[in-house]
């Protein structure tokens, strides 16, 4: 076996413009968005308004003090970002009661909150109790559809790290995103050559699909016997032109089953909800399907794609929407390295902190390879959307276009895929 690296040709995609409420910035070389606060975006022109919100914590002195400090910090940061936000209603749980268990006390307090119609509720989870976190989320999301944000007291109470402001800032971003405000946008029509993608009224529905086979749910308070004997399907479908607003669906199927059995039903619901928001069905559908390996491609193409077409036929949409489908494979054996010009004394190195002593580096963010290392039987490419931590090598993600009714050229498809990597608000890069 030849252990020497194989030379190939790649390229680095151009920086992407990230549009905040108060400014535009270019994605840095690291691929990580470093702007702490850029305001909040909405389809409406008025500034965000929070009518009332609450923070729930246990009633001992330490927990109450941390809860009050966190609520004050969150409110201050919100007002600085032009969010009209009153002071929180602090609700304490008296854990000294011995007549009820801890879970019963929390259940009673949460039920009390759910009846009061808060815009959102922050829960201060003691000692990072994962099972309590799961239970609270089950009560508020599955049973009652209440916007929640959980934070552990362990991080907030460490005086040496001084994490109160950064944690409150991140929580504020997550809360506003859950309410429906955008943290940033990408003017996607400026990135492409394809006339459909360049149009501001492109009428595209973006879909993301994955199947989770995690068995850890059996340790949750809310888990049932069926929860850890089944796989979970996640299905999201956009309904606005910036691809920042989504309808989301969850479905369950037989354990270790990768093909989505309810693909037709989920697609039909997505199309109906898109029309309800926009008064028309989408003209174009782009699907990113995660978790499909080479051995599953034929099953996926024959199965799920047929179900997607059946959903369109069931609704009798005319003209029929065009569909482009890309599979995503994060677990692969390909590793990409960039030769260091400083080591060879041929130029400056783009890698931050390079001392010129290493011949190869992890590639830059936005690096694309679609040449010799790719399978000639597929329309595929490898993308490194962000740099790896120091001392590690970035693992490229493999994308295979298995269907392309829209006729997106390879440059546009790679640019679109890279841009979509920046639209997950919970991870800025």
How do the strands and helices of this protein lay out in sequence?
Layout: E1 11-12, E2 17-19, E3 24-26, E4 53-58, H1 61-80, E5 89-93, H2 102-114, E6 120-125, H3 130-143, E7 148-152, H4 153-156, H5 164-179, H6 195-198, E8 204-212, E9 230-238, E10 246-254, H7 263-278, E11 284-290, H8 297-314, E12 322-329, E13 338-339, E14 360-361, E15 367-369, E16 379-384, E17 397-404, H9 410-420
Helix percentage range: 25-40%
Q: Please identify, by name, the CATH architecture of the largest domain.
A: 2-Layer Sandwich
Average of pLDDT: 84
CA-based shape: globular
CATH topology of the largest domain: Nucleotidyltransferase, domain 5
CATH superfamily of the largest domain, by name, is Ribonuclease H-like superfamily/Ribonuclease H
Radius of gyration: 24 Å
Low-confidence stretches: 218-222
Number of helices: 9
Distance between the termini: 36 Å
Residue fraction in strands: 15-25%
The succession of helices and strands, N to C, reads EEEEHEHEHEHHHEEEHEHEEEEEEH
Major sheet size, sense and barrel closure: 9 strands, mixed
| Class by alpha and beta content | alpha/beta
Report the top-level CATH class of the largest domain.
Answer: Alpha Beta
Number of DSSP strands? 17
């Amino acid at each position: 076996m030849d252990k020497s690296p194989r030379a190939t040709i790649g390229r680095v995609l151009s920086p992407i413009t990230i549009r905040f409420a108060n400014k535009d910035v270019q994605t840095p070389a690291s691929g990580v968005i470093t702007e702490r606060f850029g305001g909040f975006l909405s389809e409406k022109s008025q500034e965000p308004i929070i009518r009332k919100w609450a923070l729930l914590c246990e009633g001992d002195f330490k927990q109450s003090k941390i809860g009050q400090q966190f609520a004050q910090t969150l409110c201050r940061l919100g007002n600085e970002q032009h969010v009209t936000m009153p002071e929180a209603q602090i609700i304490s749980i008296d854990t000294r009661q011995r007549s009820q268990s801890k879970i019963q006390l929390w259940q009673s307090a949460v039920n009390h909150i759910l009846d009061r119609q808060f815009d959102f509720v922050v829960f201060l989870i003691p000692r990072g109790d994962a099972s309590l976190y799961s239970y609270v989320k089950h009560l508020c999301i599955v049973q009652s559809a209440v916007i929640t944000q959980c934070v552990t007291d362990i991080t907030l109470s460490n005086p040496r790290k001084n994490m109160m402001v950064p944690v409150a800032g991140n929580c504020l971003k997550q809360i506003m995103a859950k309410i429906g405000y955008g943290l940033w946008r990408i003017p996607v029509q400026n990135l492409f050559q394809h006339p459909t993608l360049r149009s501001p009224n492109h009428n595209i529905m973006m879909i993301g699909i994955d199947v989770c086979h995690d068995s850890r749910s059996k340790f949750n308070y809310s888990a049932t016997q069926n929860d850890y004997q089944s796989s979970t399907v996640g299905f999201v479908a956009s309904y606005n032109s910036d691809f920042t607003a989504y309808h989301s669906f969850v479905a369950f199927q037989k354990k270790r089953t990768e093909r989505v059995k309810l693909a037709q039903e989920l697609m039909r619901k997505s199309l109906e909800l898109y029309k309800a928001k926009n008064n028309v069905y989408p003209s174009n559908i782009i699907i990113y399907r995660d978790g499909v390996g080479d051995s599953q491609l034929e099953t996926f193409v024959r199965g799920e794609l047929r179900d997607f077409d059946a959903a369109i036929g069931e609704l009798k949409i005319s003209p029929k929407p065009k569909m482009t489908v890309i599979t995503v494979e994060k677990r692969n054996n390909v590793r990409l390295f960039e030769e260091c010009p400083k080591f060879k004394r041929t130029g400056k190195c783009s890698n931050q902190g390079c001392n010129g002593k290493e011949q190869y580096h992890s590639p830059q963010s936005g690096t694309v390879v679609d040449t010799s290392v790719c399978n000639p039987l597929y329309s595929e490419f490898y993308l490194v959307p962000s740099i790896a931590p120091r001392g590690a090598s970035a693992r490229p993600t493999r994308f295979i276009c298995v269907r392309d009714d829209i006729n997106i050229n390879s440059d546009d498809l790679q640019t679109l895929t890279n841009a979509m990597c920046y639209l997950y608000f919970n991870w800025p890069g």
